[in-house]
Amino acid sequence: MSRTATAHGDAFDTLLGALAAEPGGGARAYERLRERLLALLRVYVPAEADALADVVLDRLARRIAEGVAIDDVRAYALGIARLVVKEARAREMRQRDAAADPTLVPDADDDDRETRDAALAALRACLAQIDAAARALILAYYGADGGARIRERQRLADACGSTLNALRNRALRLRVRIEECLKRRLGDGGLA
Amino acid sequence: MTDANAPTDDTLRRWLLQQLTDADAQALDARLMHDDALAERLREAETDLIDDAARGALGADDAEAFRRYRLVDPQTRERLVAARAFARLREEEGGQEVVRRPHRRRLAWLAAAAIAAAAIVLPMRWTSPPATLPTYVLLAQTARGAEAALTLPAPQTAVRLQVEVADATRRYALAIETNGRRTPLARDLVPREADGYAYVEARVEAALLGQGRRRVVLIAASGEVERDWTVVVGAAGE
Predict the structure, then answer these.
(1) Which of A24, A81, A90, A95 might form a disulfide with A28, Cβ 3.0–4.6 angstroms?
(2) What are the TM regions of this chain, as residue ranges (chain B) (predicted)?
(3) Is the CB of residue A112 less than 8 Å away from at least one CB of chain B?
(4) Selecting from 1.20.1330, 3.40.50, 2.60.40, 3.30.420, what CATH number does the domain B101-233 have?
């Protein structure tokens, strides 16, 4: 389990204690809370989600250590997260104003042909490392478009004798594995 | 909360693109803190969004929101490169194993070429599997000025356009014009060749295509319009 950057000692232990009654105990509940905060923050401030999740947990731990009575830890954490998102967006606005550049968002199509060819070659290599069934699954699962996407995935789940949720989890794990492989092959900074 | 209340994939996409009302977004925020499955569905919605962006399959508003809200994240930019590789692989071989049938795609083009003299616009609907898109072929000799307006049925979700180009060594962009307003459809398209014909291909969302009279514009890398077609989408009697 990873502690937040600053939620040390008593505050952190108090937070674990506040989560101890949840299924799996305090440590597991802490990890789940962090995962949820990460998912939430990725919606609004994806570039800072990881760091801001730690900020939220740090503030939460300090409130609890200060003796603030909290009935629902997740709801309280959500309140802190919303505040942190507002702060991050205000900071982002100030930075944009300071830079006098309204087009800080990078172009979606800024990678060149060479990069694309390298990425394709890397993807082929990464897919070659997994078994044929997994390869077929990931290409089919992420292969359909638009409205056909849901039908195709349901069809795959039926064909696998699996539920859609179980298939989704498997596909997501495979996708993460492939993307991590791709990133390694292209080298740090090679993708961005 | 029951499954019946679960957000749709479209809602999750609009959440990611900051297109929900504050009230709807806050309801999802709260749900995410307590719903184990929602985080996974959200991750999937994000992946699908990136895949669609990689395929050039987002409408203009969604594409702008994607650039504004998602591409600020280096991790998303990394994932976009990966998604583009998946898209290219799918085009070249991968997705065709299950989702597509390459020989049918090739046949679509060859069939168009074979009857080019009489062609206006050729709908090539694959009968199976269901993931395929209706494909329409725009030939050089059916470009504007050569024929009357071409007719296309209004698509359910999207169509695939195969557009003949003059020079297989150049790159092209496609755009659609409605009442003089031009909307990019795809760019940096690399021509393919089949039996002496060169063509580029792009998927076009139904929302972008709309209904009524439109002008499909083929633009060379130099910026010049090489050719254009007038099409009527959703014509009577379709």
Answers:
(1) A24
(2) 107-126
(3) no
(4) 2.60.40
Assess contact for B219 and B225: CB atoms under 8 A. Answer: yes
User: Least CA distance to B37: which residue of chain A?
Assistant: A165
pLDDT value at position A111? 58
Instruction: Using alpha carbons, select from A174, A117, A136 the residue that is nearest to residue B88.
Output: A117
Distance of alpha carbon B179 from alpha carbon B206, whole angstroms:
18
Q: Name chain A contacts of B70, Cβ cutoff 8 Å.
A: 46
Who has greater pLDDT, A27 or B26?
B26
Angle in degrees, CA B37, B39, B45, rounded to 5: 105
pLDDT for position B47: 95
Regarding an ipTM greater than 0.95, the answer is no
In this structure, are residues B199 and B109 in contact, taking their beta carbons and an 8 Å threshold? Answer: yes
Q: Tell me the pTM.
A: 0.61
Domains of chain B, residue spans: 3-92, 101-233
* Dist CA A43 CA B25 (whole Å): 10
Helix and strand totals (H; E) in chain B:
7, 10
Q: Please say whether the beta carbons of A153 and A164 come within 8 A.
A: yes
Q: Report, as an integer, the average pLDDT of B188-192.
A: 81
pLDDT tens digits for B148-174? Answer: 566 777 666 777 788 888 887 788 888
B77-86, B114-123, B134-143, B194-203, range with greatest mean pLDDT: B77-86
* Contact (CB<8Å) A149/B158: no
Chain B nearest-CA distance from A55, in A, is: 17
Question: What are the two backbone dihedrals, phi and then psi, of residue B73, each rounded to the nearest 5 degrees?
Answer: -90, 120
Contact check, Cβ <8 Å, A143/B63: no
Give the pLDDT means over successive 10-residue stretches in chain A (192 positions).
Answer: 52 81 81 93 94 94 88 92 93 66 43 79 93 89 82 87 90 95 78 43
As given in the structure block, the two tokens for residue A3 are: 């502690």
Contact flag B131-A104 (C-beta cutoff 8 Å): no
Helix axis angle, A25-44 to B22-34, nearest 10°: 160
